[in-house]
Every structure is written in structure tokens, then in C-alpha cells.
Amino acid sequence: MPKQSFMRGAMVLTTASVITKILGMLIQVVIARQLGAAGFGLFRTVNPIFFMLLTISTLALAPALSKVIAENLALGNIAKARHALRVSNATVLVLSVAVTAIAIVVAPHLSARWLDPRAYLPFLGTLFRIPLVCLSSMLTGFYMGTQHQTPPAIGWILETLVRTVVTIPLILQLNPYGIQYGALAVAIGAGLGELVGYLYMLWCYLRRDRDAAFGPRPTAADLPSARRGTIHDLAEVALPNTVRNICGILAYAAEPIIIYLAFARIGVGKTAATSLYGSFGMAIQLLLLPTVLSSSLSSVVIPAVSEAAAMRNTRLVSRRLNQIVQITFLIALPATAFLILSGDDLATTLYRDHLAGALLAYIAPVCAFIYVRDPLAAVLQGLNKATLSAAISLFTSAIRMAGIYYFVGILGHGIYGVAQATAITAVLSTLLGAYFVHRYATLAIPAVNLFKMVLATAIAAVPIYQTHTLLAADIPSVHVVVSVLAGCVVYTLALVYMRVLPLRALARIPWIGNVLANMLQRLPFVE
Question: How far apart are CA 413 and CA 406, in angstroms?
């Protein structure tokens, strides 16, 4: 099975993530328009608990598996890489079934006592997805470790297509019976999509990729050496990551509870708080749209850095690190400018919720920190510093929870207090991650390149602002489309002319890269 290059793998995953994000946005728009802010908030209160149970079930074995497979394939320990996959699959299967069974028993009490009682049905619907998502994540870990990202990318696209086709009609059919049934439709659609995506990856693995990656089955003589240290190697990454994820998910799961308590302290009831929290959730969904790139980079950087570290190639580790940070800033800077100038109109156009738009514009200035945070955490994991990453997550999660209660319940800032706490912790966690990464690897972004990115962003902000001035008051939806297109074109041209974005890099984008590169090559003074 041919290994894809680091940049090629990142481009494949990014392209797939963009497609899935666009399709996912269709579902988000339907949820927002059919279920309203209250329904969106109801679904958002269920998600944190689902992700917490998912974290317990997977034990963060997917990134650990990708790291162990990448290291052992680089060193020629094929039998150990195969054994790591078998151990991971067996572990998550047992854990996920046990966690699902326990959660089904406690679901009625949890929904009635701690959440909005209407959350019971959608919560129950999400529980049956846990074993499927766990097994799917192991196959994703296998493909990331072998640095062959195409099957999971296609699996994600198939998953989102099925989810879109199933979820939207189900919402329209079930929502008249109550928003809890509309939220249940979202859970059912997600489960069916995940099933299709997993079956596709499983078909690729069994039909072709298992033998291509691992070769013949190990003999009895190979088994002792294959088993030696496998669990330790997996646990070295998985356990700190599990602690990190659980801390983050506990904070995420506790967030709606803290918010309800904080709003109750200032006299706002659960129903109103759910609607306000739904508007905040809409804003966050749009804020996180550009994370398709940082998420893709985080997936490929762990095995790439682990492979370089296993071969003691410090120069390659530093090169990967600087590539990651520069590529992330390449997207983060224009996204920040667009969301500041046009975020309000974007949220209003998609969700018809003015509060979501105001919250999005309010928190947009710090979104660049949010986009850089995950790749930095992935680098720490690839460098066997997952414990440090977990400590940063624990510290910032505690600050976030305290900040929410302080800004909302004590200072009385309302839902804007949640945005303030989110912004503060995003900046803090990113700065801490950058500091510790710099201690273990050379992080040196060329100042000239960074200046050129900022300058290109400032140039692209001009047409975005002008279209806002001319069109936003009368036709906000047209303004959003025109400003996105104009901003992207101007920003890309500025990067190309300033030699920040070489045409050969554009050509690596799957499917459309060569077309873009050929078009731009015909422009004057472009090399």
C-alpha cells in the first residue's frame, strides 16, 4: 500500500473535510430553522455527554494506534503493528458495549434531574452509535498510521452524504411531534451515516489494505516479540490523551449544567437558557468551520511526527512543525477577518438568528487561536508529550468552567459571558501549547512569511468590507456569497504574487488543484 506524503495526506483529508462540512452545514441549517434555538440548544446539551461516553469507550486509542503503527512500520516491526490493531479493536469493542449498556440504564435519571427532560429521546438515540463510532475510529487510526488517508476521507464523505439524505427528511417528518423528536431524527441520521462510512472502510481494509500494509500473518515464532511492549506503547499515548479528553469532555458535559446554574442565579429559567445556549451553539458551529484544516492536520501530524521521532530525525520534526503552523495561519487569518466583518450576516442568513450572528462577530477576533490549538496538541502527542497536553487541557478546562459561572452568574453578562470565557481559554491554551512545543522542537515561523500572510489578509479584507457596505443592509445572503468569493480570490492572488503560496502547492489539492494552478499560471508575473 503506497504511503502518501505528509502534504498530500493533509490535502486529501482537508478536501474531504470541506465537503463534509458543507454537507453538515445543510443539516445544521435545517436543525436551526425547523427546531429553532431551543431545539439546537437541546441537541447541544446531549452532545457533551455523548462525547464523554465516547471518550471513555475509545480510551483515545485511535491517535495512539496511528502513532504505534507509524513507528513500527518505519522500524520494520510489522507483526507488532498488526498486534496493536487487534488489541485496540478488542478493547474498544468491550468497553463501548459496556458503556452503552450502563448509559441506557441511567439515561432517564440523568435527563430528568440534570438536563432538560426533553433531552431523553435524543440522548437515547445517540447511545446506540457508540460501538460503531469506536470501531470506525480504530480503522481510521490504522489508515492514519499507514499514512494512507484516502479510505477514511471517502468514508467521511459517504457518511455525511447518507447523514444528510436521511436526517433532513426525518427532521421534517418527526419535528411536528415535538423538538425532542426532531433532535432524535438527527441522532438516527448520524448513526446510519456512520454505519455506511465504517462499512466502506472495513471493505477496503479486508479486501486490499490489510495485506498490503502488514503482509502475511505472523508465525508463532513472531508472536512473543509482537506482543512485547505493545500495550505499554499504546498506553503511553492513550492514557494521557484519555485524561486530556475526559477533562475536556467533562468540562463540555458540565457546561450546560454550569450555564443553567449560572442563569438561574440571575433569574433566567431553563427554557430561556436553552434558547440562549442554542444561539451560542450556532455561533460556535460557524466559528469552527475553518477547523476542517486544523483537524486534518492534527490527524496526519501525529504519525508523521512519530515516524520522524522514531528515526531520530530532529530536522524533519521541526520541518513538519513549522509546516503545520504556517498552513494553519494561512487559513486562520483570512477566516478571522471574514468572521469579524461578515459573521453577523452569515449566521443571520443560515440560521435566521440575530443573536447567533452577534455572538459570532463578538468571539471572532480570537478564532485564529482556536484553529492553531489542535495541531499544537497533536505535535505534543507525536513527541510523546501527551501527558503535558493533558495537563494543559485540564488547567484550561477548569478556567473555562469557572469563567462561565463568573461572567454569567456573578457579573451578569448573560450569554456573552459564555463567549468571554471561551475566548479567554482559547487564547490561554494556545499560548501554553506553543510555549511547550517550542521547548521540545524548533518552532520558528519566518517573520517575512507571517507578515505577508497578514498583509494578504488586510488586502482581502477590503472587498469583504466593501461588499458589506454595499449589500449587507438590503441582501445579506448575497453579501455573504459575494464577500466569500471576492475575499478568497483576492487573498489567493495576493499569496501567489507574494510567493507565499507556490503553484506546486496548489496543484497538490485533490481534483481541482491542477486546474487552479494552470489558471493562475497564465496570469502576468506569476512564476
Answer: 9
